[in-house]
Amino acid sequence: MLHATDPSLLDVSAVVAHAQVLINAQVASLANLQTSGIYSHAASSPFCSMLGVCPPPPPLCSAFGIGCPAQHSGHPDLASALSSAYHGALEQHYYSTTAAQAFALVGAGDALSQAIERRGGGGGEYDPARTVRMAVLGLLIGGLGTACWLRHLEAALPGHDSAARVLQKAALDACVWAPLANSGYLVLTPLLEGRRPEEVASMVRARFVPVMRTELCTFFPYNLVSFSAVPPLLRPFSTGFVSMCFAVYISWITHRREAMTTREQQQAEATG
Fold it and tell me: Which compartments is it annotated to reside in (predicted)?
């Protein structure tokens, strides 16, 4: 008497083939769901690790949370949508995007600088023309200029495989681009304000070395971090943001020293 469980009655190869067909069908179905957008993030599914069909997250997602697929929910994720749109703008319109963000950052930095100056009693009414001038300079130098330089530098020395490569990039930025950018600001800012060329030349001679000294103390350490950890697409934004904060700080320090000097002169005149 033979039973249904007798191995002689089972075609093992047929069972294995049938199981393989079922597994392949499930894998194909999951892949279709991922590409059709039903699963906005494949990693949220348990089949991701089991079947090995999850796409890797974008590099910007892993580093800074930019361009990450949104988790599937009933409501759109506004932050993810905005970050994805910004990432797409950088990839498709690199120079126009970096120019626009530099215009906004430098303009905001100048507005904040003027607010600090007025609060300290060293400035008059807010000057929108000054903010526009600085924003335009930021667009040209900090936006287009810095973006072009960083892209050229990354093409010449790609990656961050070693400390020597990162140090090379930081040194080149400090020795090549920093003097050009700072000279541009030092020359064009007073010229746009109506200063005479000989007066501008005198100001540049007096301020270039202190500005470069402060530049090296601030941006050289920042560049070591930037060239090590910040993706190339995001470097113009992070550099522009640091530049904005640095400009506000320098404006505050300069105004405070000028105010202290004025008070000292007033006290000397009163006691003299």
Answer: Membrane
Tokens representing residue 16 in the block: 């294995």
d(CA 226, CA 272): 53
Q: Which of 64-73, 168-177, 222-231 has the lowest mean pLDDT?
A: 64-73
CA–CA distance, 106 with 137 (Å, rounded to integer): 8
pTM for the predicted model, two decimal places: 0.63
Name residue 244's amino acid: M
Q: Which residue has the tokens 């769901």?
A: 33
Give the residue from 105, 93, 186, 190 showing the smallest Cα distance to 143.
105
Task: List C-alpha distances in Å: 8 to 88, 209, 224.
Answer: 61, 92, 70
CA angle 119/120/121 to nearest 5° reads: 90
CA 223, 228, 229, 231 dihedral sign is positive
Q: CB-hemisphere CA count at 13 Å for 74?
A: 0
pLDDT in tens, 2-31: 444 444 444 556 655 655 655 555 445 444
Q: For residues 72 and 39, is the Cβ–Cβ distance under 8 A? A: yes
With both helix axes pointing from N to C terminus, report the angle between 197-229 and 178-192 in degrees, rounded to the nearest 10.
Answer: 140
